[in-house]
Amino acid sequence: MAKKLLGKDVAQHMQETLEEKIAALEARGVTPTLALVRVGARGDDMAYERSAIKRMDALGIRVRQVILDADASQQALETAVAALSDDPDVHGVMIFQPLPAPLSAEPLKAILDPRKDVDGMSPVNMAKVFSGDPSAMAPCTPQAVIEILDDYGIDLIGKRVTVVGRSMVVGRPLAMLLLERHATVTICHTKTDALMARCREAEVLVAACGRANMIGADMVGDGAIVIDVGINVGADGKLCGDVDFAAVEPVASAITPVPGGVGSVTTSVLAKHVVEAAAVLNGVTIDT
Q1: How many helical (H) and strand (E) elements, i.e. helices and strands, does the chain have?
Q2: Helix, strand, or coil here: 152?
Q3: Rounded to an integer, what distance in angstroms lies between the CA atom of residue 82 and that of residue 93?
Q4: 172: phi then psi, degrees, rounded to nearest 5
Q5: Rounded distance between C-alpha atoms, residue 225 and residue 213, angstroms
Q6: Which residues pair with 164 in a beta bridge?
Q7: Angle CA 113–98–88, to nearest 5
Q8: DSSP class of residue 215?
Q9: 3-state helix, strand, coil in the chain (%, to 5)
């Protein structure tokens, strides 16, 4: 039976470290502050917002909510983001995506100060991720995968790692972060020839394809470590991942559950990025 890689344990370890760094900042008169920008009232946005606020409150990070109506104009959104980017009391800005049509996030990437881009949407941060710059703020979900692997002491040096998913939100930046850990990385997707064979070769398999239960036992090599990034609603109405957990658990050596895995670490990564941004913006040196 596979070992469960539980996100709550990783989040707890991160919280202990973050509390020390927040205390160091507050001793210098800096209280880390996060702005959450939400347009409309999508259920998944609001659920994550509640989770993020709970995490920030537990750490003593201030949260400023900026909520616009679903029919807000592009200009109103850009004005709101520009104001937050210029506000010295705000250290991190997260914009919920996707935005309601016809709004576009592209202009926001140029408006937002990259130092406050705590969810890695800026092309500046993405370029840093792809170049291996340690000052990069990667998108929170791929960084959460790395935090789990690190916390559980999973050595990636030379390991065959397959990432199923090629999005700029998860798959591609995660591949770059894995390469920085000296893994041998293969990126696959739903149109990859012989996908099953490519997945079975992996010592570490990361599912980020956005299809419920797509990864079955026949796609997982014996003893592989399986990281499930997917968040889907199954036919039974319950949350499930991209991995068929019941089928894969007996084959894998370790696996993240859904819920309770990667998703539960993302808000801790968000908090970590806010703390790092607060230090950089205020010229404070802390061990990050």
Answers
A1: 10, 11
A2: coil
A3: 10
A4: -70, -50
A5: 16
A6: 188, 207
A7: 20
A8: B
A9: 40, 15, 40
Which tokens hold the place of 121? 């949407």
112/117 Cα distance (integer angstroms): 7
Say yes or no to pLDDT of 234 above 90.
no
Alpha helices in the chain (DSSP H): 7-26, 43-59, 74-86, 106-111, 123-131, 140-151, 171-180, 195-200, 245-248, 263-281
For the chain, give the longest Cα–Cα distance: 56
**Per the structure block, which two tokens stand in for 81?**
């983001």
Interhelix angle 43-59/7-26, rounded to 10 degrees, is 50
Residue 33 pLDDT: 98
DSSP E strands in 137-250: the ranges are: 160-164, 184-188, 204-207, 225-228, 232-233, 239-240
pLDDT for 278: 98
pTM: 0.95
Q: How far apart are CA 228 and CA 174, in angstroms?
A: 13
For the chain, give the number of residues: 288
Euclidean distance between CA atoms 257 and 245, whole angstroms: 7
Residue 218 DSSP class: G
Residue 92 backbone dihedrals phi, psi, to 5 degrees: -145, 145
Tens digits of residue pLDDT in 70-91: 999 999 999 999 999 999 999 9
Q: Does residue 200 contact residue 212 with C-beta atoms inside 8 Å? A: no
